[in-house]
Amino acid sequence: MPDWQSLFDPSVPLLDTFVRGTVVYLGLLGLFRVVGQREVGVIGVHDLLVVVLVAEAIQQGLAGQYRSIPDGFLLVVTILAWSVLIDAIAWRWPRLGEIVKPRPKPLIEDGKLNRRVMRRELITMDEILSQLRLHGVDDVSQVKRAYIEPNGMISVIRQDGADVEVPEHQPAI
């Protein structure tokens, strides 16, 4: 017969679980911000981080590697609370938001490539040309502005103001 009491008695001090969740979340968020936007894909770094950490926390609880339900539950609550708190901070104080949330970075300005951003994001000329073709643009000189967005996609504004084609499922570069 299962020991029902042990399911609800924390096996680790709750403060320990909270601190572990906090350190892992903030540490990984910082690492993802340093790595850059290029490999993110369709969802943002923040969202990816939450999904991965919650999945891992839940897996531990479901596999019974915690002795009690509150251990895993507190870890998930900690991760989600930091996610909401980071979003609230970014919304309330935009200057702090610039630190924790990525911003679009200009890849092309008035038909000229921004080599510094290309180098920072490790984007090659071939990758940019490929993305421009997906938007129906043949030449960099036709682009007024192009940005690498926080989700890793590239947005394009043409010199002539004409609409650009927007790929239905644009792959991240």
Write a structural description.
54% of the residues lie in helices and 10% in strands. The chain has helices at residues 4-8, 14-35, 45-62, 69-92, 94-100, 115-121, 125-134; strands spanning 105-109, 112-113, 143-148, 154-158. A four-stranded antiparallel sheet has the order 2-1-3-4. Strand 3 and strand 4 (154-158) form a beta hairpin. It is elongated and about 70 Å long. The mean pLDDT is 79.
**Sheet with the most strands, sense and barrel status:** 4 strands, antiparallel
If strands are numbered along the chain, what order do they take across the biggest sheet? 2-1-3-4
Give the CA-CA distance, first to last residue: 54 Å
Tell how many strands the DSSP assignment holds: 4
DSSP helix fraction: 40-55%
Kindly provide the radius of gyration, computed on alpha-carbon positions and rounded to a whole number of angstroms.
21 Å
Structural class: alpha+beta
Residue windows where pLDDT falls under 50 for at least 5 positions: none
Quaternary organisation of the protein chains: single chain
Give me the strand/helix succession: HHHHHEEHHEE
Chain-averaged pLDDT: 79
Strand content: 5-15%
- Gross morphology is elongated
Q: Number of helical runs?
A: 7
